Amino acid sequence: MNRPRLYLVTPPVFDLEAFAPRLEAALSGGDVACVLIYQPEATAKALQETAAKLVPMIQKAEAAALIYRDTQVTGRTGADGAHIDSSFEDIKLAMESLQPARIVGAGGTKMKHEEMEIAESGVDYLFFGRLDLEEQPGAHAKTLERAEWWAELFSTPCVALGGNDLATLGETADTKADFVALKDAIWQHPEGPAQAVRLANAILDQHPFEEDEE
Question: Which pathway does this polypeptide act in (predicted)?
Fold first, then answer.
């Protein structure tokens, strides 16, 4: 039996020295598959400084460290891969630059045929959900519908972006996505990020699914 694993997304803006121990706490709370360092407005220099500090911490916890939209920072800091959601052309360029040694994940899609075309190109995963939208307690209905459709029909792994309330995590897990992405549900949890990861994993354990036969 399988169940979704956690894919953590950092806040878009944070103080590095204050955030690093919070990330370390989250990683100590239980199973985390990967962490996306998501700083869409950061300069390349600032992103490099952030990644240089956080990537080793993430990898020490045996999670994959992913960089948002910057393949050069990915390479320079020894990160495990990059997440690209700007355009199909950018996704293909990232694949040429990073694969097969590193992960290339794709997101930002709007149409099902576009998602199928990107998957056929050889990306490592597809991400369903908008990182730039204000979070709601639960996952967006379109995210749930798209992730469930994808998980049922295709072999390329997918990530479903959940809401900011762990009480709604079960419905995201029930899409049978390979990974569930969480942002403020972890970083803004009243009991802290370590307990949030513990609770999230306990919820995910209650939502196993059988992998479909090929």
Answer: Cofactor biosynthesis; thiamine diphosphate biosynthesis
Residue 212's pLDDT is 56
Distance from the Cα of residue 175 to its chain's centroid? 16
Rg (CA), the chain: 16
Query: Could you give the CA distance from residue 175 to residue 75 in angstroms, rounded to a whole number?
Result: 33
Q: pTM for this structure?
A: 0.96
Give the tokens for residue 122: 């050889």
Yes or no: say if 161 and 142 are a contact pair by the CB < 8 Å rule.
no
Average pLDDT over residues 183-210: 96
Cβ distance 162 to 172 under 8 Å?
A: yes
Q: pLDDT (tens digit, 9 = 90+) per residue, 75-118?
A: 999 999 999 999 999 999 999 999 999 999 999 998 999 999 99
Task: Residue 162: name the closest of 188, 194, 129 by CA.
Answer: 129
Question: What confidence tier does 211 reach under pLDDT thresholds 50, 70, 90?
Answer: low
Helix, strand or coil for residue 51?
Answer: helix
Angstrom distances, CA of residue 155 to CA of 88, 124, 125, 173, 213? 20, 10, 10, 17, 10
